[in-house]
Amino acid sequence: MKGRNDLSSKSETEKYSLKYHIVPPKGLLNDPNGLIQYKGIYHVFFQWNQHDTVHKNKSWGHVTSKDLIHWDYHEAALMPDEWYDKDGVYSGSAVSFEDKLYLFYTGNVRGAEGKRESYQCLAVSEDGFTFEKKGPLFNHPRGYTGHVRDPKVWQDGVGTWWMVLGAQKEDLSGDTILYQSTNLLDWEFKGSFVEEKLSLGYMWECPDVLRFTEKDVFIFSPQGLETKGKEFQNIYQTGYLTGKLTSNGTFAPDKKAFKELDRGFEFYAPQSFTDVSGRVISFGWAGVMYPEVEAAVPTRKDGWLHALSVPREVTYVDGALKQQPVIELEQLRQPNPTVINDAAQQTIELPSLQNELLIDWENTPKDFCLHIRKGVTMQYHHGNNRFVVSRTNWLTKEREEREVKIEKGLKNIRLLLESSLIELFINDGEEVFTLRYFIEEESRQLVISTGDEIENRTISLYELSV
Ligand code: FRU
């Protein structure tokens, strides 16, 4: 089928088109779904409204790749065409078992008087491209509202299958529930995934469990968190708890706070999978916005909205997660990067709108500031170790910022730049900022001021091309 949104030069928003991120061919994209490497091919499904740029009629869009950088677009894999998913084939995950591909998803149904019903469903494929729906797997759990969704399934070391689901209790608090199976078809309800009560909002979406040798990590996207200082500033956010999976499948969290996975404005609902090389790779949605801000995104004029993040390799290092673009993305780098070692040469005209900027400091810089295309500013304050990213909101036209403390001081940054999307990785991915930006003026200016000695740092700028 027709691939990414190839916009004609007459398009109003061609200047915002994205070249190396997964975007919908048309319509609206949200969460990444069903991530898996199956029979040697990477499959990425995504929440997709094919017809319009609003949150309705969700199907599963489908792209595949052999290398995580070149993506082939396919027909939608799952359409909302059964009684149990008629109002949306909602988010879910994939596993492969006995050579078959199993997709688990939530069927969303608006029942009588618009009351929400949710069904946890299965679809099976033998080739990864055509799917047979098997319908709902079990009855709705007692004690939970209609908000139960986003099954994430994995198999443990002794062959038991586990499923977690984002949920809302009848007392309107957020939760994640656990199911167990031996054959992927019969599922037994095991109760709350985290036994101890955590007061984190009214609904938890898109739970995910990442297993590392020393630790397990529970990632989820709670709705309804109160802003706390500089944290939790977005409409909804994604974060994680470190801990251990117990022998009965539940998660025992460490006594550590829920930590935001991304410090930018939009990153949400990520999902991970492990590929054959053993890497934990994750994609997120870029991303969630206040409805009025989403309605004002200029690309809606050309009939498409949102993107996925680049694939990120996730590791657990010194008590926290690190996220870095997968190594394959280095293949997008064009030869002969601009190397900036002249103190005077700090205003650069970007060669194109797809770039990667790398800065490495030998010692933490005194202060650092980057102005990108006269629209986005990134600043590091040595005095208090604060890193601040600001942009102009395309609806209100006001400046808005997000910030984080870089505990051990700034050492390096890696910036993936596209015409309307930026992913910033600080200190090898210890902190990440993802953000959309839409500037009206066609500026290609990059102004870097590092306020330190040039021998203390290296700056390289690559043009990226798929
Ligand atoms: C998260 C989410 C999921 C749901 C899907 C619907 O962004 O709300 O909980 O399954 O999107 O598109």
Helix content: under 10%
The tally of domains stands at: 2
| Strand segment count | 35
Tell me the name of the CATH homologous superfamily of the largest domain.
Glycosyl hydrolase domain, family 43
Could you give a short account of the major beta sheet? 6 strands, antiparallel
Distinct ligand kinds:
beta-D-fructofuranose
Give the structural class.
mainly beta
* Terminus-to-terminus distance: 19 Å
Uncertain segments are none
Helix segment tally = 1
Name the shape in a single word: globular
**The CATH C-level class name of the largest domain:** Mainly Beta
Q: CATH topology of the largest domain, anyone? A: Tachylectin-2, Chain A
- CATH structural architecture of the largest domain: 5 Propeller
